[in-house]
Design goal:
single chain; alpha/beta; Rossmann fold; 2 domains; 26% helix; P-loop_NTPase; ATP hydrolysis activity; AAA domain-containing protein; ATP binding; AAA_dom
Length: 340
């Protein structure tokens, strides 16, 4: 049973609001959620929690709170959900509109007729018929929208936050966002998605100084800021790659050369994601990791073979959902060719 295999650790709680914003707490680490609408926010939460389940290799328990109530769920590694039978759901009840009761007025007694035969009752006078309005509820009948579940609730658009429209909203006059702000929100929504399985993106250009390294850093920062953790940049360059120089250094000086001897251990079943902290450099503001090369060493001193590229990628794909590879300029280099 899934209930038996889903552990209570890490503690996962998610809260989303009518405006599509919210937050997810996973083991004490908070991730902000900002979506175009409430269904999209629910999908972001589901994918973020499913990503945690995949990293742990097992289902996880989570408590989801939305405008419709509180829902204890079990999230599987493939993103599917089922109710957590060990906890009680707390839906918010709907308020039904009372119907007006039509009161029939008392019928007047029939007056005796002179020509009534003795012992024969006179037929009662017909009472007033209820009008169509009296037969209807107090409010005009209309189709009610069905109350939907945690994953399918509709959502209002968040008011403007930018430009003069945003200024008016802050003054208390709710304004809809401009087309430019809507387009920006759509872009944020796009880069906030989580996809099944790891994705690898190589940034390539045969010319030096074309902006490959800044593009790698910016892409990783955007996807990690809006989509959450699980993003790696990898300096796949034997000829003095500068990705490490242009990013924040961790509390060590490790590079991919120190990671290579540990590949078998990191791919074993006993390895944990925290073990990678010995070899990658976390960007505290932008929330992605950097696997450096050694730019001060000659290529002959840090020769990496094609099979080493495969080994590094296997480790990266196990622990990260997005891998951005910064390449060098030598298209004949076996390391470059294996990356492609």
């Amino acid at each position: 049973m899934t209930t038996d295999t889903a552990a209570a650790w890490p503690r996962i709680e998610a809260t989303i609001h009518d405006d599509g914003t919210g937050e997810v707490s996973i083991g004490g680490s908070t991730h902000q959620v900002q979506a175009e609408d409430l269904p999209a926010a629910r999908d972001q939460v589901r994918q973020l929690v499913a990503d945690t389940a995949r990293k742990l290799g097992r289902p996880v328990r989570a408590v989801m709170t939305d405008p419709d109530g509180q829902w204890p769920l079990i999230v599987k590694t493939d993103g599917t959900l089922e109710a957590d039978e060990t906890a009680e759901a707390r839906p918010r009840p709907r308020t039904e509109t009372p119907a007006r009761t039509a009161v029939e007025p008392a019928r007047p007694a029939a007056a005796p007729a002179d020509d009534t035969t003795a012992g024969e009752a006179a037929p009662p006078a017909p009472g007033p018929q209820p009008s169509p309005a009296q037969d209807q509820p107090y409010e005009t009948r209309r189709e009610r929208r069905e109350r939907q579940s945690f994953l399918t609730q509709e959502q209002r658009e968040e008011p403007a936050t930018q430009g003069w429209r945003g200024a008016m909203t802050r003054l208390g006059i709710r304004m809809s966002p401009s087309p430019a702000e809507r387009a920006e929100r759509a872009d944020i929504q796009a880069v906030s998605q989580h996809w099944p399985g790891p994705r690898t993106i190589a940034i390539v250009n045969g010319k030096g100084g074309a902006g490959k390294t800044p593009s790698t850093v910016l892409l990783a920062a955007v996807f990690a800021r809006y989509g959450g953790a699980g993003v790696l940049t990898w300096d796949n360059n034997q000829t003095r790659g500068t990705l490490g120089w242009r990013t924040e250094q961790g509390p060590h000086e490790a590079t991919l050369m120190e990671l290579l001897p540990q590949v078998d251990r990191l791919l074993s079943t006993g390895a944990q994601s925290a073990d990678l902290a010995h070899y990658v450099h976390h960007q505290t503001r932008d929330r992605f990791d950097v696997l450096r090369s050694k730019p001060m060493e000659l290529a002959s001193a840090q020769r990496v073979e094609p099979e080493d590229v495969d080994a590094i990628h296997a480790v990266a794909a196990k622990y990260y959902r997005l891998i951005f590879i910064d390449s060098g300029n030598d298209e004949s280099d076996p390391m470059w060719r294996r990356m492609i």
